[in-house]
Design a protein that fits this description.
heterodimer, A: mainly alpha, B: alpha+beta, ten-stranded mixed sheet, 9 helices, elongated
């Protein structure tokens, strides 16, 4: 219990004081999350352990954010799969009776993590597509706010000033955008995006958006 | 942490964690009160998954870096001249207008500068904000650099915009009421006819506003056609085609299977010496290859010899006819 508390505290420091780990996750892990989810979804036997992909993903992020350093990680994708693998093993070991198929699954995941370098560029691109798909599916006001944040990198205060809305409104819209982006990542793990059609990117067909005014 | 609890409602539990994590991530992104900090700490300590979900939510809130967008597009193509720019994040936009004389709404509040080129002329002009515009043949662009945005109006012709990043002043190119707004690192636009605009993104992310104020966001290697009839149509475009679209800056024109009629129309944009084609069958033959945009005669000669056509050179025009 003591050890657990100590770990949590360290994780807390990582989380809140330093944004660099979060940025590392955003740049190097997030793009590979859909691939991991796709991989997990293909192997539905996770359910024999009473687990969902979400559980594995959340636990994996927890491990990654708790690391002392990430400098030694040269292959983030492999590392993510490896981490997911250790989460799974940890869970299997916790069980008194282990369903036979789950061992199989853990082995397969280890194999996947050792796969030769996958196309990092492709997945970075895929990540951008997921972001755009999300942006295009948001209601107009929310969309404006989310673009200013996710694409322009404005702070919440700057967004509030720019759009002349309350900061609490910005907060609300951002939460909605992030939640939607999470959903897109969850779905993206099942239906990989292809940036080719209007429907893929969620472009509305009719004039059902309120556009912004032209100067 | 409770795995037993999870077995009772797996997905629901994970989804709820995500919702709470999202709220915390957004709050932590502005500033937490000491009380909130305490609450957050308690929540994080309650379950290992909470810390994971919180980190993930914060990653989701992290802006797409211009660098990342650039890396993505570098694998697709090298933007010409990019190294000559002082700032890392450049936005490249090319806007073409074939029909001229559009209504122009002047903004009295700010200073406007007008840049133009004559037929056959290509010129590069630096802007005060560090951006550059390369104007193609027969082009006029009005530029208004304001405190809150950078507004450009394309009256006619075609231009390539290389835009210095400035997140507080969006870069907006207006073509006949349709707009292309640089919201990431790099992009291009093209106007085909009156009320028909083509937008091509070379790098990064661009937001376009089409008919009925419909909005779409595009990324590198994507093309949007904005049209009153069809709305916004999106397609992907390969790197080779992207290169061809910018070849005019080097005084070249590239074709891959365009009809002779289309190719000639393109040539005629650049030259006072106009090419005419006599014969529908000849006009429908297809052309592939690179040509100098300012040497219509060489192009006509190449066409004549490959299609076995007759060529007649007049003072101000060249006629191609089936033999």
């Amino acid at each position: 219990m003591l050890a657990h508390a100590a770990i949590s505290r360290r994780r807390w420091r990582m989380d809140v004081r330093s944004t660099s780990r979060v940025e590392w996750l955003a740049r190097h892990i997030l793009p590979h999350e859909p691939a991991l989810r796709r991989w997990l979804a293909k192997r539905a036997r996770l359910s024999v352990l009473g687990l969902s992909s979400d559980d594995i993903v959340q636990e994996a992020y927890a491990k990654l954010v708790g690391l002392e350093s990430v400098q030694h990680i040269t292959n983030p994708r492999g590392y993510l799969f490896q981490t997911a693998h250790s989460v799974l093993l940890q869970e299997i070991r916790r069980r008194k009776t282990v369903p036979f198929e789950s061992l199989d699954l853990a082995d397969a995941l280890e194999l996947a993590s050792n796969a030769p370098t996958v196309d990092e560029q492709f997945e970075a691109r895929e990540e951008l597509v997921l972001v755009l798909r999300t942006i295009n599916s948001l209601p107009e006001k929310c969309r404006q706010v989310f673009i200013l944040r996710k694409i322009h990198g404005l702070s919440q205060r700057e967004i509030a000033a720019r759009l002349q809305i309350a900061e609490s409104t910005v907060e609300k819209h951002l939460s909605r955008g992030v939640k939607k982006l999470m959903d897109t990542h969850r779905d993206g793990g099942i239906h990989p995006p292809t940036a080719s059609s209007r429907d893929e990117l969620g472009i509305p067909r009719n004039g059902d958006r309120q556009g912004r005014r032209r100067n | 942490m409770s795995w037993v609890f999870r077995e009772m409602g797996i997905d629901r539990a994970a989804g709820e964690i995500d919702s709470v994590a999202t709220r915390w991530a957004v709050r932590a992104d502005r500033r937490l009160t000491p009380r909130e900090e305490q609450e957050l700490r308690a929540w994080l300590d309650a379950d290992t998954r909470h810390a994971g979900a919180f980190a993930r939510a914060r990653a989701m809130l992290t802006p797409v870096s211009p660098g990342a967008a650039a890396v993505v597009s570098e694998s697709q193509r090298q933007l010409p001249h990019r190294n000559t720019f002082p700032r890392r994040a450049l936005i490249a936009a090319a806007v073409t207008a074939m029909a001229g004389g559009f209504a122009f709404v002047a903004s009295a509040a700010r200073k406007e500068k007008i840049y133009s080129t004559a037929t056959g002329e290509v010129r590069t002009v630096p802007l005060a904000d560090g951006s550059r515009i390369t104007l193609n043949t027969g082009t006029r662009v009005d530029v208004a650099l304001g405190d809150t945005d950078r507004q450009l109006d394309l009256h006619s012709g075609e231009a390539f915009f290389e835009v210095a990043a400035d997140r507080l002043r969006p870069f907006i190119v207006d073509a006949d009421g349709f707009t292309a707004k640089a919201v990431g690192t790099a992009f291009t636009v093209r106007r085909l006819d009156a009320r028909r605009v083509e937008v091509i993104v070379y790098e990064g992310v661009v937001e376009v506003t089409g008919p009925n104020r419909n909005v779409a966001t595009l990324q590198a290697n994507m093309r949007a056609e904005l049209d009153d009839q069809t709305g916004i149509r999106l397609t992907t475009i390969d790197s080779e085609a992207l290169d061809r679209k910018l070849a005019w800056r080097d005084g070249r024109i590239g074709f891959t299977g365009e009809s002779l009629a289309e190719a000639v129309r393109e040539f005629n944009r650049y030259n006072t010496i106009q090419i005419d084609i006599a014969g529908e069958e000849l006009a429908q033959r297809t052309i592939t290859g690179w040509f100098s945009s300012r040497d219509p005669e060489a192009f006509a000669q190449a066409v004549a010899s490959s299609f076995d056509a007759a060529i007649t050179v007049f003072q101000s025009r060249i006629e191609l006819a089936a033999k």
